Every structure is written in structure tokens, then in C-alpha cells.
Amino acid sequence: MVDASTSAHGDLTLTNLTKSFGEFVAVDDLDLVIPQGSFFALLGPSGCGKTTTLRMVAGLEEPTSGKISIGKTDITFEKPYKRPVNTVFQNYALFPHLSIYENIAFGLRRRGVKDVDKQVQNALELVELTHLASRKPNQLSGGQQQRIALARAIVNRPALLLLDEPLGALDLKLRRAMQIELKWIQTEVGITFVHVTHDQEEAMTMADTIAVMNEGKIEQMGSPADLYDNPRTSFVANFLGQSNLIKGSIVDSSGGSAVVDIFGTKVGLAQDRNHAHDSSVLLGIRPEKIRIQPAGTAMHGNILEGGVISDASYIGVSTQYQVEMPWGQELMVFEQNDDGTPPLAKGDAVVMSWEPIFTFGLAGDQDATAGSEANPDSE
Amino acid sequence: MSTALLHTGTHEKKAVLKKKKLIPYWLLAPGIIWLIIFFLVPIYQLISTSTQTQGFGIGTYVQTYRFSNFADAISSSRAQLFRSFEYAFLATVFALIISYPLAYAVAFKSGRWKNTLLVLIVAPFFCSFLLRTVAWEQILGEQGLVIKTLRFLHIFSAQDHLTATPFAVVAGLTYNFLPFMTLPLYASLERIDIRMMEASGDLYANAITTFRRVTVPLSMPGVVAGTLLTFIPAAGDYINAELLGNPGTKMIGNVIEARYLAIVDYPGAAALSLILMVTILILVMAYVKRAGTEELV
Predict the structure, then answer these.
(1) For A251-257, what is the mean pLDDT?
(2) Domain check: are A81 and A218 in the same one?
(3) Total count of domains within chain B
(4) pLDDT at position A377 over 80
(5) Strand partners, A211
(6) Residue B56 Cα distances to A181, B53, B60, B204, B238, angstroms
(7) Are residues A25 and A140 in the same domain?
(8) ipTM exceeding 0.85, yes/no
(9) Is the N end or the C end of chain A the one with fewer CB atoms within 10 Å?
(10) Residue range of the domain that includes B13
């Protein structure tokens, strides 16, 4: 299929992009390169500047300073209707007075494309809603409207497709199905997708690369696995999934693995996962990576003793424990119910261990709870 | 004993249900009674009067089912009838042209002045319709600033007038019914989701195309309501033609008024009133049907 809309091709590059509303800086000196053909997610809590960034790329908001370009073409101050960019709006913004067919044909007709009918049919086939062509948007379900909004944007073969919380209005089951479908469609059409969401699961399911945004800046960028296994800040560690962050100090960093002292216990931390600037460190470990056994059981790897279960909730696939440590901190442990032993009970003394490779180290001078209040998964 | 209790229980329940069913009718009752006394009875009277003929003495009429009253009424007042629709149509078009940008600005561009502007649009209603039309007579009159300015600029000679012209009548009608056009337009424009315009721009439509293809179609309910609320009362109006016009600008309202109050020809006036009502009804139905099937959401 040919790109009819424009000559602009290539990577989307944001350079020193800033947007302020009065005193408030929504997007703060953002530098970002989104490779052509990738599925890119901008992930962050509400108010982090991700939607403003998207609107600037779409041309609906003018940057205070900085530059936006696609390939070698500067589009910073280009009118929205002249950009090779299409948007799937939050709540879809389908035209209620036009049929589904005319909604999809809208962009093609404005550009004076010749084979409108064929392209609209192709787009309808792509989202498997050919039979709804003559309906009006308000006669469609939320999931169907979502797919029409996608078809209406994709049919124009833009260099860049922007998706603004596209699945936010759908229920959980439909959202899961649409995540898989969106990913499939992106692979099928090969257009660069830039997806804005506050839902970390959505971002991780679909995107090749995720940029975690907080207060107008990018906290960290990388593949979903990279962000999850090797977060660089406590915000990322807490916003993507859940983390146990324990204060410690590095006592020996001479080898490939640093030795960290946490309240008298020595544990190992791989150097490539150590992001502390000095000896003060927040030691991180994901709850599902921790093994838990009754006190006295022999364990290997990094071992923490002296914990007492303060809460145990059985949720079928796993049991979630809160373990109170001698220094007063509560650690989370998610244990798969796969070894036939009955779950441990509240008040049991336990010993915990994990493989040192799962440990990550964050700079010790930051707020250990940053990002957790913004994460809908954590209480 | 227990069955008896149960029995009375269901009985009471039924009574309560019956009462609940009646509530809507009780709520409707004042409106229906009002409608019967002040609409249905007068309409019946009007229809009945329209086929009567002169009895003994002035102002006394007897029912003779003389349907040629209608033909007589049309043949004697055809010019005024057509003029009424012509003036009402012109006033509606002018009101639409003036109101659309105004309503658009109030709905999308007024920011914190929105409420102030809405109050200003409604403000004329604080003064009587008649007084405002008299004021227009003064504004356009021989001593008014408008005519003096026009004469000073030599656009008008001493023989040219503004009052007692068709222009003054149409201008008066346009002015008097302007809020009826602006308010429904504002209401429907204000309801349009701003993202519709953004989506249109995103889909390669420039500002003019967006206005034509998205804004106007989505504001059609307001256009239809506004044009009806302007056209219907304007077609039946006689104050503007009376105060701002001349004998050559008489509208059907003036004829009806004269027949009722000056000539005391009740059947002729009633027949003309009915003709006016039915014509408006037919025009409105044709208009709504056309606008409704094509554009209304």
C-alpha cells in the first residue's frame, strides 16, 4: 500500500520540546526519538504531560519552545490538517451526523483520493466491521466505535498514528482483546504508533518501547522487560508493577556484583543493575521473585531472615503475603500456589530468599514511595 | 386468618399501584385544562366563526356554513398574505446571518464573558415588544441619527426615507426576533464536542471545510429551531408593519387586525387567521421533514 498523504517519512524526533501553561510546565525540555514503524508508548500518571506531548505532535497544541520533526521535515508549526499524522481520540470523536462509511471516508475525501470506496472497504475489513458501514456511530457499541476510530485514522496511511488513551472507555475484557488486536494491526500496517496511556499493563502488552513520563520529563525509556526488571528510579519501580524498596548501603563494589548491607544482612547486587550514585542505595526486589518458607528452612541466594507474616491473602493463582521485617518495614511477597504445600498463615515466622540477579539498586536519596500512589494496582 | 391478611395485603398493593399509575395524569392535568380553555375552545370558536355570515345589526353573525368566506378572504388579501411570507422569510434569513457568527462567538470564543453576553442577548426582553418597535421608529425616523448621517454623507437625499419603507419593516422584524434565533443556535453550538473540530482538522480538513462539514451539520437542530421560532411569529406579526411601514407594506396580521377591530368582519378575519395558520403549518412540516431526514442527528 502506498502512502498517499505526504512525503514526510522516518523517525519522529522531539528536540527540547517544552510546553508551559502560564506558570505550569506541562512538558519540560523533552528529547525523544521514536523510530519509524515502532509501537511506542508514553506511559505516566494523569498530569504528567503525555497527552500534551501527543497534542503537540498532532498540531492541536503549539509548543512553547523546541522542535518536532518527522524524518527531515520540521512540522513544529505546521497546521494540523497538513501533518502526515492521524489521531485516535479518547472517546473516539466519531462524527455523529455521518455514517460509519462516511466517517472513514472523511480524511480520504479531504485529500481528494481517487479510490475512496476501495480504501474504505479495506479499512472496514481490517477492523472486521464491513457489515456496519451504513450505520451511524451512536448505533455502535463502545468496542465497535473504537475500531471505527482506528479505521478512520489508519485508512489515511499516515506516517504516524497517535492513540490517546484509546482503550480507556472499554471494559476490562474488551480492553484485553483490543490490546492484542491493536498490536496485530500495527504489525500488519507497519505504521508508527504512538500510544498514550496511564495503564502500565496496556503499555507493556502492546509497546516495543515505553517511555515512562513524570512531571513533564521522561523518567526512563526502554523495552517493557528492561523497565520492569531494571528500573532506574523509584518512580518507575513503583509505577510499573510493584516493588519492595529497602534502604541499604553498598559495602563492597569491587567485584562484578556489589555487596549491600541492609539492616545487618549482606546481599548481592549485579553492577549493571546498580543505579546508585554513592554507597547509599534503595535495594529493589519484585514481590513475585521472592521465595518464602517457614523460618529455619535452608535457602540459597540472597536471604532475609526474621520476617513475620502480618497478612496473607489467597487470590487463587497466588498467595500475597505482607511480611513484617525486624526494622519495621513490610515487604510484599507473591507466592505461586504450585508446590502443593498449604499457604503460610498470619503470625508465622518466615525466611525469604531470591536470586541475586533479580536485585536492582536505586539511588538512595529518592522517595521510596514515588509513583506508587499513581499506580492503580497498588493500594 | 393468614390468608385473609394476605388477601387484604395484595388488595392494598393494587390500590397503591393504581394511584401510582394516575400520577402522570394528575401532573398533566393543569396543562391540559389550560390548553382546553385557552387553545381548543378559541380554535373551535375561530373555525366556527370563519363560515358565518352577517346577521341583523353590526357585529352579529349567524352560522350558515359559508365556505366561500375563505375564497373571498384569499382573493381580497392575496398580496398581504404573500408579503407576510416574503418579509418573514427575509427577516429569518437576516436573523440567521446575524445570529450564527454571534452564537458561534459566544459558544466558542467568549471565555469568561459567556454569561455576560448571554444576558445581553436576552436583555431586550426586559422591555416591551411594542416599546422597542416604537424606539426603532425613532431611530430610523426623520429626527434620528441614522437618517441624518446618511443625508450628511449624501447617500440619502432629502426625499429619501427609512421609515415607512419595506426595509424598515424587515429590519424591525429581524431585530425583534433575533434572540429567538440566537438562543437555540447557541444551545446547539455549545453542545458540540470541541474534539469533533479537532478530529476534522486531524483528518485533513481546513477551518472552512471543518465549518461546512462538521460544525454546520452538527448545529442543524439549532438552525431548525431558530428559523421556526423566527419565521412563525414574524409571519403573523402586525406591529412592525404598523409602526415602521406604509400602506404598501401591510402584512396579513394588519389585515386580520383591521377586519376584527375596525371593520368588525369577524368571519373574514377568522377565515384569514385559519388560512395563515394552515399555511404556516404546511410550510413548517415540509421544512422540518426536509431538514430532519437529511441533517438532524
Answers:
(1) 84
(2) yes
(3) 2
(4) no
(5) A42, A221
(6) 88, 10, 6, 76, 31
(7) yes
(8) no
(9) C
(10) 2-50
Amino acid A376: pLDDT: 57
Please check whether residue A133 lies inside any domain of the structure: yes
In this predicted structure, the answer to whether residue B3 has a pLDDT above a threshold of 60 is no
CB A200 within 8 A of CB A43: yes
A379 in a structural domain: no
Domain membership of residue B58 (yes or no) is no
Q: Alpha-carbon distance A60 to A81, whole Å? A: 10
Nearest to A183 by CA among A87, A375, A41: A41
- CB contact under 8 Å between A97 and B218, yes or no, is yes
Q: Residue B12: pLDDT above 80?
A: no
Confirm if B264 and B192 have CB atoms less than 8 A apart: no
DSSP state letters, B110-172: -GGGHHHHHHHHHGGGGS-HHHHHHHHHHHHSTTSHHHHHHHHTTSS-TT--STTSHHHHHHH
Predicted TM-score (pTM) of the model is 0.80
Residue scoring higher pLDDT (B264 or A312): A312
A318: domain CATH number is: 2.40.50.140
Interval A336-354 mean pLDDT: 86
**CATH assignment of the domain containing B281:** 1.10.3720.10
Q: pLDDT tens for residues A191-225? A: 999 999 999 989 999 999 999 999 999 999 999 99
- Judge: A81–B206 Cβ closer than 8 Å, yes or no: yes
In a shared domain, residues A207 and A266: no
Q: Smallest Cβ distance to A97: which of B195, B205, B295?
A: B295
Mutate to test the interface with B, among A85, A87, A110, A164 (most CBs of B within 10 A): A110
CA pair distance A133, A130, nearest whole angstrom? 6
Residues B143-164: tens digit of each pLDDT: 888 888 888 888 888 778 888 8
User: Under a CB-based contact definition with an 8 Å cutoff, are residues B222 and B139 in contact?
Assistant: no
What residue type is assigned to position A25 of the chain? V
> A interface toward B at CB cutoff 8 Å?
5, 58-60, 79-82, 85-87, 89, 91, 93-97, 106-107, 110-111, 152-153, 156
* Residue B84 Cα distances to B74, B87, B96, B172, angstroms: 13, 5, 18, 13
